[in-house]
Design goal:
The chain is mostly beta strands. Helices cover about 5% and strands about 50% of the residues. A hairpin with a 2-residue loop joins strand 19 and strand 20. The longest helix is centred in the first third of the chain and has 20 residues.
Length: about 900
């Protein structure tokens, strides 16, 4: 007993000291490794064999079984490995083991020879992971290939996570997890957070360059994940040990008006001495979208390089560099004809300028990023390790939308991260994890907007002082994060208890307003009961928190009152904000509480055949950011933000997986999500005004108390699709031909936009509209049939069910080379996903006054439709 106490103290002390030292906070970071564990027992008598050495052949790491025959390897990079033992009984045993991040693969020797036979046999991570108390879905390159036919999503994250339970797209295809908005999902790349501090959205091109697999957590994950109120997606990248050679994929897609060309090249290998492995990958593509109301053309490049140095079995150094660039050309209306205004941004300082060029310029948007990291990992023992990572993330985005929206904006960010992570399987029953990160950042946002002229941006001779443009923000956020996790097994390993906590602190260094610091503490609790190896019952609770967008905590609005530049100083602005419901922009942290009950069942688990996963969930979000103003009129009123928003989503997610038993077997999945999503704003930040501004026309006589009461009302979100269905089935018909069918279906979205160019929340029939030189009020709004009048309701209606069938086929020429043909939307369905009372350019769907409608009338027209049939084909080859 005394020796066990000493052992526990010996290994718990470093983590305890780490927790004491790191009483600050970190930005989100996530696990990138898995584990292999098991027991070695005598094959005949079933007795435990202690002192047996188990070796991972590829890394040379050796674990010795304890007296119960137990062994474990923690911190194992995802991939395929061979295990050997030195026992005479099992001297010939070796197995190819697939290891996944955040998962433990169990490999028992001896008594379970029917699972792992003498010689070489492939054992995948079990369909049911007994020690996982969170809802986790693992997506590999194979899944991506089966579903990769969508023209907007080739090698993109929305296409990668297609069909995963709990994930609902919106009419534009953006990813939403269990009722969370697109800017509330935590994205990481090999554990590096890749979301912007300014917007909470993806800081990269969302291209899956170098993808090995991705872990999706639709609910609460372990406390190493955080920084987002929604779910989490962690992409894991390849290394040279995974590929050992090269692959090339060339794609073209000229069919039916689409024009796509792309390449996906990758190469990796190991040096002869085994000390280094290296990997490189690039994805390049361009696409044209004739007829699309938003995007005319896109050009994209992403590249990734990864190097690993294995000094010895216990010490590894890794380097990663990832860079990308993307440019979009927009469809637009030339509303100036005679002139245009070109903007010359200066990202090095707070000034900006604009001048008249006298000619038309193409609207566009550009974005770029680069990520670099250096990681050192040290194994104290096979069951414990410490890793340190330094990384740097830079990204920039610029929108030149002068013609379509009378706006030019840009933003850029630098983030530096220091991450420390410690894991120790103290005993076979208890695991301890702890981590700390320090992340200083620099964010810069600016926007030039002209809501006054209604046609085009006014010439601006010079803007010498910071804040004298329409919107500006310069913030230096500095974050500290600490997490501590404990996992305990009981009742003969049938019960797993998970308890952890995550602490975060962020200092908002502001230039014009007063700097401030905000913190959060997120508890995580989970329990699993596994009465059988192929059955798991689980429950979990977790709080998730997210710091507010930095561009909102210091925004100067010079046109904050009556269209005049009256608030060019923070003092003037704050006086006006304090005079009404709009508040001082000292925004607090966003929060969510997540609850779930789930069951996982595998059938023929040891053959990796069938498995099912079903989860009941609820996510309640509060302290969400909302845009406030004291007048509905876009030209007037005091503007600001506050934390008055709330949201609630509940439902059930379900997935039935079929895995291959042999090469000729079919595989695929069926997933279904039933969800009701409500929020007090159509999206949780600045994209839409709160609903009541439309419902009550921004009546200046409404009191502050009325404003607050109306703001508590919740309505369907833009992505409140009640039923979301995905079916993927793949079959290798013979040695030459393989095909997969993909069905994407949904019950429709609420169409709640007023004028698309302004982005009001509810329908427009009770708001003041302007069409040309004619102003009119209380205009009836009808559907496309121009007969059905919409009721007085903050939600005007819903689009109907939509279906899309796609076929992906491979023609296998040899083991190394195949041709492929992908057809997206085979039936060429053009179902409407969303309706609006205006085009994307802001032109209302309007009929002139008539005898029946003396004031004229606005009607709902098509806003977003399923993209037309798209054919892509190409070649894949290995070398």
């Amino acid at each position: 007993m005394k020796s066990k106490t000493r052992q526990l103290f010996r290994w718990a002390l470093p983590a305890l000291l780490l927790g004491i030292i790191c009483t600050f906070q970190l930005s989100a970071f996530a696990a990138t490794t898995g584990a292999i564990q098991g027991h070695v027992k005598a094959a005949d008598a079933g007795t435990a064999l202690g002192g047996v050495k188990v070796t991972i052949v590829e890394t040379g790491l050796v674990a010795t079984t304890d007296k119960s025959g137990y062994y474990i390897f923690t911190g194992v990079q995802p991939g395929s490995y061979t295990l050997k033992t030195n026992s005479a009984v099992f001297d010939a045993s070796e197995s190819s083991i697939a290891v996944q991040a955040d998962s433990t693969t169990t490999v028992d020797f001896g008594l379970y020879k029917k699972i792992i036979s003498t010689g070489s046999s492939k054992i995948l991570a079990a369909p049911v992971r007994r020690a996982d108390t969170s809802t986790q879905y693992v997506i590999g390159t194979r899944t991506e290939q089966l579903t990769k036919s969508q023209p907007n999503n080739l090698y993109q994250f929305p296409g990668l996570v297609f069909g995963q339970p709990g994930i609902t797209p919106d009419p534009s295809g953006y990813t939403h997890v269990r009722g969370a908005d697109q800017n509330q999902v935590g994205f990481t790349l090999d554990g590096i957070p890749i979301t912007e501090h300014m917007t909470g959205q993806f800081a990269t091109n969302i291209v899956t360059v170098g993808l090995k697999s991705a872990n999706v957590y639709s609910g609460t994950a372990d406390p190493s994940y955080g920084g987002a109120t929604g779910g989490f997606i962690n992409e894991l990248t390849m290394n040279g040990r995974d590929i050992k050679g090269g692959t090339a994929e060339l794609t073209a897609g000229p069919g039916h008006g689409w024009n796509y060309t792309g390449t996906n090249l990758q190469y990796g290998n190991i040096t002869p001495n085994g000390k280094f492995d290296y990997y490189g990958s690039t994805i390049m593509f361009n696409n044209s979208f004739p007829g699309n109301t938003q995007v005319a053309k896109v050009d994209s490049f992403d590249g990734l390089t990864k190097l690993n140095y294995y000094a010895d079995p216990n010490n590894t150094v890794s380097f990663l560099y990832n860079q990308g660039y993307e440019k979009y050309l927009n469809y637009q209306e030339d509303r100036t004809a005679a002139s245009d205004y070109a903007f010359t941004p200066d990202s090095s300082g707070p000034t900006n300028s604009a001048f008249e060029t006298g000619k038309f310029r193409q609207d566009y948007s550009i974005q770029g990023y680069n990520i670099s990291s250096l990681t050192y990992k040290h194994n104290f023992t096979p069951s414990s390790f410490l890793s340190y990572r330094y990384y740097h993330l830079y990204n920039f985005v610029a929108f030149h939308n002068e013609n379509t929206a009378s706006v030019y904006s840009e933003r850029s960010e630098h983030s530096t991260g220091h991450q420390l992570d410690y894991t120790n399987q103290v005993t076979s029953k208890y695991q301890l994890r702890a981590g700390y990160a320090y992340t200083p950042s620099w964010t810069h946002y600016r926007s030039v907007v002209d809501p006054i002229s209604g046609t085009y941006l006014q010439p601006i001779a010079s803007l010498p002082s910071y804040g004298d443009i329409d919107r500006a923000s310069f913030v230096k956020p500095t974050a500290h994060t600490l997490y501590l996790g404990n996992k305990l097994k009981a009742l003969n390993d049938q019960v797993t208890l998970d308890a952890g906590v995550r602490y975060g602190s962020q200092h908002f260094g502001l230039v014009k307003f007063a700097s401030y610091t905000d913190t959060y503490v997120d508890p995580r609790l989970g329990v699993n009961y596994s009465p059988k190896k192929d059955l798991v019952l689980r429950a979990s609770y977790g709080a998730n928190s997210q710091f507010p967008d930095t561009r909102l905590v210091e925004v100067l609005f010079p046109t904050d009152y009556g269209g005049a530049a009256t608030a060019t100083s923070p003092t003037d602005q704050q006086k006006r904000m304090a005079s009404r419901y709009a508040q001082y922009n000292k925004l607090g942290t966003l929060h969510s509480n997540n609850y779930e009950l789930g069951v996982e069942k595998a059938f023929n688990a040891y053959k990796s055949s069938w498995s099912v996963n079903a989860t009941l969930f609820e996510r309640y979000q509060y302290d969400l950011i909302q845009y406030t103003r004291t007048s509905y009129n876009p030209l007037g009123g005091v503007r600001g933000y506050d934390n008055s928003g709330t949201g609630r989503a509940n439902g059930v997610e379900f997935i039935l997986n079929k895995r291959k038993v042999n090469d000729s077997d079919w595989n695929g999945f069926f997933s279904y999500t039933n969800q009701v999503s409500r929020a007090s704003s159509s999206i949780f930040d600045t994209g839409y005004l709160p609903y009541f501004y439309n419902a009550f026309s921004g009546d200046p006589n409404i009191s502050d108390a009325d404003f607050r009461q109306f703001n508590r009302d919740r309505y369907p979100t833009t992505y409140d699709q009640r039923h979301t269905v995905a079916i993927v089935a793949n079959k290798k018909l013979n040695k030459w031909f393989e095909t997969s069918a993909v069905l994407d279906a949904g019950s429709g979205f609420p169409f709640i936009n007023g004028l698309a160019s302004v982005g009001e929340g509810a329908d427009a029939q009770h708001s003041e509209q302007g069409v040309g030189n004619s102003d009119f009020t209380e205009v009836p709004v009808t559907l496309l049939d121009k007969q059905t009048l919409q009721p007085l309701n903050p939600v005007a209606g819903r689009s109907g069910w939509h279906y899309k069938l796609s076929i992906n086929s491979n023609f296998i020429l040899s083991k190394a080379t195949s041709l492929f043909l992908n057809v997206d939307n085979v039936l060429d369905s053009k179902t409407v996903l969303n309706y609006s009372t205006a085009t994307q350019q802001g032109t209302p769907y309007y009929e002139a006054p008539s005898a029946a409608y003396p004031q004229g009338r606005v009607y709902y027209g098509k806003s977003t439709i399923i993209t037309p049939i798209f054919v892509s084909f190409g070649v894949r080859t290995k070398f």
